[in-house]
Amino acid sequence: MTSTPMGPLQGTLELLVLKSLEAAGRMHGFGILDWMRRTTGDEIVVEDGALYHALHRMSKRGWLEAEWGVSEKGRRARYYGLTQKGRAALAEEEERWSRYVTAVARITRAAPA
């Protein structure tokens, strides 16, 4: 049976983007998408439109800084990096995600009545 790639769970896209930028450094949008795809072994695939909306939202919140540069293919691209606010947001999102995963694990390990 072949597994179908998943999109990010509702509410996790910002965590995934912030963590990607922390792990790999400044990247343009396609680089972020490619890094997430490769890192998850093609298990999580994010749609372009969803990513660019999230990048815009996070930039408005002050979590990301962006500047224009030239991509590996010689094209003009907007590169994103974490700000201090973005690092703080990442720490909060990681804590929230950890609590969520722990709670779900409790349910999935619960013995049948």
What's the layout of helices and strands?
Elements lengths: L12 H12 L2 E2 H11 L8 H13 L3 E7 L5 E7 L1 H25 L5
Antiparallel strand pairs: 1-3, 2-3
Helix pairs in contact: 1-4
Describe the structure.
- This protein has 113 residues and is an alpha+beta fold.
- 54% of the residues lie in helices and 14% in strands.
- The protein contains 4 helices and 3 strands; from the N terminus they run αβααββα.
- Strands 1-3-2 form a 3-stranded antiparallel sheet.
- A hairpin with a 5-residue loop joins strand 2 (64-70) and strand 3.
- Helix 1 crosses helix 4 (84-108).
- The mean pLDDT is 92.
The secondary-structure class comes to alpha+beta
Poorly predicted parts: none
Query: How many helical stretches?
Result: 4
Tell me the helix content. 40-55%
The N- and C-terminal alpha carbons lie at a distance of 32 Å
Biggest sheet record: 3 strands, antiparallel
How many whole angstroms does the radius of gyration measure?
A: 16 Å
Identify the strand order in the major beta sheet: 1-3-2
Identify the overall geometry: globular
| Beta-strand percentage range | 5-15%
Order of helix and strand elements from N to C terminus? HEHHEEH
- Residue-averaged pLDDT, rounded? 92
Q: Count the beta strands.
A: 3
